Amino acid sequence: MTNLILFGPPGSGKGTQAQSLVDKYKLLHISTGDLFRYELGNDTDLGKLAKSYMNKGQLVPDEVTVKMLRRKVESEPDVDGYIFDGFPRTIAQAEALDDLLEDLNTEISALVALEVQEQEIIDRLLLRGQSSGRADDQNEAVIKERIEVYRNATKPVYEYYDANDRAYTVDGMGSVDEIFQRLCIVIDSL
Ligand code: AMP
């Protein structure tokens, strides 16, 4: 199995690149942001809870997020691997993911981080907010909070995987295709 974490700040292009990677490597794409938005759209209890954090740019509590992620992974066991997008976002989530994959006799092959300059991220998110309908992309204060949360809570996840040489960085500036080619070079080298 090849299990990848697509890592990077909000607006770094994880979702876009995940789509292309899924086509090429036949992996299952799991985005916790998409899973929360699905719940939100269906107005479930989980969706209502998630919304109260998402609209402020804060993280949904680990326990809730991990439970949802575990349920999704366990419902799709017959795959060649997973691409995790937007997860893990804390060290506790990374530890929970390691445990979950160990239960399935597999592990994370690599974390690949997309590096993008902060002003570019803000510009991209505001632009996306014009068409995505996402409340958290339309407010510059919320965008800044998401970047701050990324810096404080999420960035240490890179070091967590780097400690056993599973973390890679890719330049996330340029065209979608250029960035995709850079990702493929890393993945093909695994
Ligand atoms: P995303 O679509 O990945 O940018 O996620 C949108 C929002 O969903 C985030 O700002 C968080 O509020 C929530 N969220 C998504 N994934 C996670 C996660 N792994 N842990 C906690 N909250 C998350």
Question: Care to describe what's here?
Answer:
It is built from nine helices and five strands, in the order βαβαααβαβαααβα. Strands 2-3-1-4-5 form a five-stranded parallel beta sheet, with helices on both faces. The protein has a single domain, classed as Rossmann fold (3-Layer(aba) Sandwich), CATH 3.40.50. Helix 4 runs parallel beside helix 5 and helix 6 crosses helix 7. The model has no long low-confidence stretch (mean pLDDT 97). It is α/β, with parallel strands linked by helices. The chain starts with a strand and ends with a helix. The structure holds adenosine monophosphate. Adenosine monophosphate binds next to helix 2 and helix 3.
Characteristics:
12% strand, Rossmann fold, five-stranded parallel sheet, globular, binds adenosine monophosphate, 190 residues
Runs in which pLDDT lies below 50 for 5 or more consecutive residues are: none
Order of helices and strands: EHEHHHEHEHHHEH
Please tally the β strands and state the result.
5
**Assembly status:** single chain
Shape: globular
- What CATH calls the topology is Rossmann fold
CATH architecture verdict:
3-Layer(aba) Sandwich
Assigned CATH class: Alpha Beta
- Which structural category do the helix and sheet elements fall into? alpha/beta
Residues in helix, %:
55-70%
CATH level-4 homologous superfamily = P-loop containing nucleotide triphosphate hydrolases
Bound molecules: adenosine monophosphate
Indicate the proportion of strand residues: 5-15%
How many domain regions? 1
Radius of gyration: 16 Å
The major pleated sheet works out as:
5 strands, parallel
